[in-house]
Each structure stands twice: as structure tokens, then as C-alpha cells.
Amino acid sequence: MKTPLTLAEKLAPMIIRKISRRPPDFIVGADHPDGPYLLRWYITPWRRWRAQADANPTRWNRCRAAVARMLPNLYLHCFQRDDDDRALHDHPSWGVSYILRGGYIEHTIAEGGIHHRADYRPGVLRFMGTRHAHRIELYRLLFKPRGLGPTTFFMQSAELEKLHCWTLFMFGPTVREWGFHCADRGWIHWKTFTAAGKPGEVGRGCD
């Protein structure tokens, strides 16, 4: 669903400036040579409740953690790199994404192996089901005009400057295991695909 671009333009500086003043709560791909893949800030406090229960498992903290597992989480995301291009990935829950700044190209595979590409830019509100499998590719800039208005010329090339993508993301309670969809091997659990103990790092992949 497309919302007015002016809404995203007004919300983006206010939300990004306020929340990103503090360090990210979670970094995906922190040890990658090309830098992090995703920076995540917790907006709702539920994830902190679960961490507190792990660190100090009092009855009260365990009760809060049990409640937190049933509640959706709201995050601020900053995508800084493309998804791994070897496979699409799905998710452990439903998600709702609102693009604040930047944007991306989403790659999906329809029934019959048909490859689809879709462009999503600021102001787009998206709902993704638990089994929605995709891969995200960031925009590249051929040049960087002031304001990044509608006349901005985008081009896909590894040598060009990547635009970070900022989104508000609501994620529902975990309802399933998630993983990657490899062309030859089929679905692979994320723990097998990625590097052990390094979220977002390339591991065995589809091999």
C-alpha cells in the first residue's frame, strides 16, 4: 500500500534522528568485511524484557518475558548491504514494513520458478506473511542530487554508491522456524545456512 510521500518525508528525519542517537540494539553481520548488513533499534521494550529474564531469571522477569513472546515488536531498521544473493529467505513471523528513506528492489520467485522484481520506495507500507520468501537489493546512485526527489536516476551496479534503506518494521510473535530457499537443496534452516554464532554472516550457504 502506498501512503503519501510527504508523510514519509516528515516522519523520517524525526524518527531516525531521535532513535539512532543511541547505539543499535542489534547488529546483523557485524564482523563482515564489507560492514554490517542491518542495524536494528528496539522501539517497543519487549525484547529487553526477554534479555533481562535471561540475565536475572526472577519470577517477575520470567513472567514479563512470557508476555513479551506473545507481543509484536516494533523496530527501526537500517539496511546497509544487499541480502545474500544465493537464496531467498523467509521469516519466523508476519511482518509489516514502512519505508522511511531510501528503498529497495525485492526479488521473489513465483510458482514455476518465475523471477519477479518489485521496486519499493519511501511511503510504501507492506504486509508480509510468514512464508513470504524474498531477497532485498539496495538501490545504487549514479549521481546524488539534492533531496533525492523523483528525478533521481537509479542504476544497478556494484561500483556505484549504495543507498541505505531505513524502515519501521513491526514483527509478530514467532510461530515457525525460518530459513533459506536454495535452488538445488530446497529449504535450509538458517542455523545451517549462516555462520555459527555470527548473525548475518555467510556460512555454509547452499553448499
Could you characterize what this model shows?
By secondary structure, the chain is of the alpha+beta class. Helices cover 19% and strands 31% of the residues. Helix 2 (46-55) packs antiparallel against helix 3 (59-68). The longest helix has 15 residues, at 5-19. The radius of gyration is 18 Å and the shape is globular. It starts with a helix and ends in a 14-residue tail after the last helix.
Provide keyphrases for this structure.
207 residues; alpha+beta; three-stranded antiparallel beta sheet; 4 helices; globular
Secondary-structure element pattern, one letter each:
HEEHHEEEEEEEEEEEEH
Rounded to the nearest angstrom, the radius of gyration is 18 Å
Q: The biggest beta sheet, please?
A: 6 strands, antiparallel
Q: For the largest sheet, list the strands in their spatial order.
A: 1-2-3-12-5-8
Strand content: 25-35%
Q: Distance between termini?
A: 37 Å
Uncertain runs are 144-159
SSE-based structural type:
alpha+beta
> Count the helices. How many?
4
| Backbone shape | globular
Number of strands: 14
| Overall pLDDT | 85
Helix content: 10-25%
Provide a brief overview of the structure.
It is built from 4 helices and 14 strands.
